[in-house]
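Ticket #4471: structure export looks truncated?
Reporter: QA, pipeline team
Priority: medium

Steps to reproduce: submit the single chain below to the structure queue and open the exported record.
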Amino acid sequence: MNRLICISFLVGLALASTTAQGNVTYSFKCITGDDPTGNAGSVGENAFFVDVSDPDAGQVLFTFGVLEGYPYPPAGSTAYYIDGVYLHDTTVAGAAVLGAAQLIDADTGGDPDVDFDTPATPGHLPSFDPGAYGVSLVYQADADPPPSQNGVSPGESLGVLFDLLDGKTYSDVIAGMNSLEIIAGVKAQGFGEDDYSESFITIPAPGAILLGSIGVGLVGWLRRRRTL
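Actual output as written to the record:
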């Protein structure tokens, strides 16, 4: 019984770590291969992130950013930047979470060096098939010309603030992100002298992976104890 209480506590702790603070940061994985060396994809997977927070009841804020300190090899250029953002929500009837959205950029009190607008060009995340994940595109925006100046460069960020659909909560957003029923995507370019472009999508947060691992372990332990 004491073991069960301890494991239940760990499960609760892991869940709290992903929801109670109202702030979860997700990294990306590269889904393209424009750069034959793979360096561009590696840089994006290390440097790009999206922070998901709840600034107010009934809202969720996606803050896309680029960390500093991941120069593009071998020349050490930091010219890469995010020039397009895409948000996808589940197509399951009644399960959608995200409603109307607005940009938080140079025009709306955001980063003065980041200026985006809708719709994006292209109007979809290159090389991403929403249908394969059971999601559909609900929002898109890209950097105003010239994108090299108005995109999200290292040390900068861009916000997309959503109203949640009736009855939906911030916890629903986090659950959707961790189950890949809500997927954020970015298009980035400016990698190296050949100006490679790559696409990236979010992956579940580490806390969700930990929670899933604890859950699987708990079920296995209970079965071995013949308590199910």
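Status: closed, not a bug. The export was complete when the record was re-opened. Leaving a note from the reviewer for reference: Residues 21-210 form one domain.
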